Amino acid sequence: MLFKIEDYGITLTKDGAPQITILFKSVESDETKTWWGSLKPGIAREITIKTLMTLGLTKEIEDLADGMASCALNVAQEYELVLEQSEYKGKTTERVRFINIPGSVSKSKMLDADAARIAISALNLKGDLMVMKKHLNVKDQSDVPF
Predict the structure, then answer these.
(1) CA proximity to 72, closest of 5, 146, 2
(2) Does 140 fall in a domain?
(3) Is 130 within a domain?
(4) What is the pLDDT of residues 93-133, one digit of tens each?
(5) How many separate domains does the chain show?
(6) pLDDT in tens, 23-67
(7) How far is residue 143's CA from residue 146's CA, in Å, rounded to a whole number?
(8) Is 43 within 8 Å of 16 (Cβ atoms)?
(9) 35 and 22 Cβ atoms separated by less than 8 Å
(10) Strands 18-26 and 2-12
(11) 14, 34, 37, 49: which has the fewest Cβ within 10 Å?
C-alpha cells in the first residue's frame, strides 16, 4: 500500500528524548501510520538519518520542528511502508519498520545469487557483523535496538 506524508515534527520519547515523528496517510484510504525515528547515538540514529534522506530531507534535522511549514521533506512522493507486528508489554501493535520509494529496488537491478555472493564475500562482512552484534549485545533480530 502506498502512503504520503501527512505531517511531521519532533516529539519526545517516554524517557524525554527528542525523536522524529512522521504521520503517513494512505493514498487509497483514510488509514494512517506513524513512524518514529530515534536520535539515540549509534545504529538507530544512522537508520533515522538514512530514512530522512529517503524521505527527501532538504534542510537540517532541527528544521523538522517546524513541521509541514518547513518543507524539509518530500510530501509529494508516494512511499511504500514495510509494516511489522511488534509486541510490547503483552500488546501487539503494527509499526513501520522501513520506508521505501516505490520501484527503488527492482529485480532488474539485483545481482544473481552467485554474483552477489562473490561480491559480498570479498567485503569480509562476517567479521563486521559479529563486531556490531557484540557491540549492540544482539543475540537475535528481536534484540535490535530500533
Answers:
(1) 5
(2) no
(3) no
(4) 898 999 999 876 555 567 778 888 888 888 877 777 778 77
(5) 1
(6) 999 999 999 999 999 999 999 999 999 999 999 999 999 999 999
(7) 9
(8) no
(9) yes
(10) antiparallel
(11) 14
Tally helices (H) and strands (E) across the chain. Answer: 3, 5
Order of strands, sheet of 18-26, starting from the edge strand that comes earlier in the sequence = 32-38, 18-26, 2-12, 79-88, 91-100
pTM for the model:
0.70
Classify residue 35 as exposed, middle or buried by CB count within 10 Å of its CB (0-12, 13-18, 19+).
buried
pLDDT value of position 139: 65
- Residues spanned by the domain of 58: 2-104
Q: Per the domain annotation, does 65 fall within a domain?
A: yes
141 in any annotated domain: no
User: DSSP letter string over 119-141?
Assistant: HHHTTTHHHHHHHHHHHHT-SSG
Q: How far is 94 from 24, CA to CA, in rounded Å? A: 14
